[in-house]
């Protein structure tokens, strides 16, 4: 964990992306210790619940693209 945190700091990583179906505590801890954001979650192994932004494959891909762009730009840009 210490090596990962040091790497994120050294490379000035702006965002880590927790997966929507996994407990975000570790990503949140890494974000707190490095100053990176863990605000934007990605759909990975599963689709989101019905009615969510990841309910279908296509909407999941759109939501992931938007989350990545927002994470890497500090929320300044997105893919609406």
Backbone shape: globular
Q: List SSEs in N-to-C order.
A: HHH
How far is it from the N-terminal to the C-terminal residue, by CA?
34 Å
Total strands: the figure is: 0
Largest sheet: none
Helix/strand/pairing category: mainly alpha
What gyration radius follows from the Cα positions, in whole Å? 13 Å
Summed over residues and divided by their number, the pLDDT gives a mean of 94
Low-confidence residue ranges: none
- How much strand content do the residues show? under 5%
Q: Can you count the helices? A: 3
Helix fraction, binned, reads 40-55%
Give an overview of the whole structure.
The model has no long low-confidence stretch (mean pLDDT 94). The protein has helices at residues 2-10, 25-34, 57-72. It is built from three helices and no strands. The chain is 44% helix and 0% strand. The chain is mainly α and 80 residues long.
How would you describe this structure in keywords?
80 residues; mainly alpha; 3 helices; globular
Task: Present the secondary structure layout.
Blueprint: H1 2-10, H2 25-34, H3 57-72
Summarize this entry quickly.
The protein has 80 residues and is mostly helical. The protein is 44% helix and 0% strand.
């Amino acid at each position: 964990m210490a090596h990962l945190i040091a790497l994120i700091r050294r490379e000035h990583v702006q965002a880590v992306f927790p997966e929507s179906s996994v407990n975000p505590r570790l990503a949140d801890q890494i974000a707190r210790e490095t100053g990176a954001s863990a605000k934007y979650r990605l759909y990975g192994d599963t689709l989101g619940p019905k009615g969510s932004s990841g309910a279908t494959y296509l909407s999941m891909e759109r939501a992931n693209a938007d989350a990545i762009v927002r994470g890497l730009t500090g929320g300044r840009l997105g893919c609406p």
